[in-house]
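User: I'm preparing a small set of examples for a lab meeting where we compare how different chains pack in three dimensions. I only have the primary sequence for this one, and I'd like the structure in C-alpha cell form so I can line it up with the others. Please keep the answer compact; I'll paste it straight into my notes.
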Amino acid sequence: MHFNHYGGEAALLSTDLINLDRPVTRQQVRQLLQTYRVADPECSTIQAGAIGEWARELARCFDATDLAQQCAVINDLLSTAASKPYISLHDGHPHLHYRALDDDVVARVRAITISGLAYLVCFAGGHRLGRCARPGCRRAYVDTSRNGRRQYCCVRCANTSAVSRHRRRARSHCSPE
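Assistant: Understood. Below is the C-alpha cell output for the 177-residue chain.
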C-alpha cells in the first residue's frame, strides 16, 4: 500500500506518537517530527506534553469498535483540530498543507495527524487502524500490507505469538506415558 506524506505518513506519525513512552519528552517529539519531515519541529516541554495529550485522543481512533464509532471519533477530533487546508507550491509542486507554517507546532501536529487518519479511513478503510493482537502488547499500528490482514505491531510480536500458540498446541498433544 502506497502512502503519501499528507495522508498515510501522517497516520503513521499518529501511531508513533501514540506508542511513545510516557511521559512524552521534548526530545522524543522533536526526533519524531523530524523523522516525518514536519516543518519546524522545535517544541517546548509544555508543547511536547500537549502533543502527548493529543496522542491519547488519537488513540481513541484505534480503539473504536466499528467504522461508525471510528468515524464519529475522527469527526470529533477534526472539529477540535480546526484545520484549514490549503494548496502550497513552496517546493514547486502543488500539495496540501493542513495548517499555516507559522502556526504553533501543537496546532500543526493536531491538524496533520487527524487529517492523515481521516484520509486513511476514507481511502483505505478503517480496518487499517489496529492494535497489536499479542497478549500484553497494545501498540497501535497502521496496516500497510497489501491484503489488509495485519494483526501485530511488528514481526517480533507476530513471532512471539506464533511460538506461544505452537507451544500450547504441543503441550495439548502430549500425553503422559
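A couple of notes for your slides: The CA atoms of residues 49 and 59 lie 15 Å apart. The longest strand covers residues 86-88.

User: Perfect, thanks.
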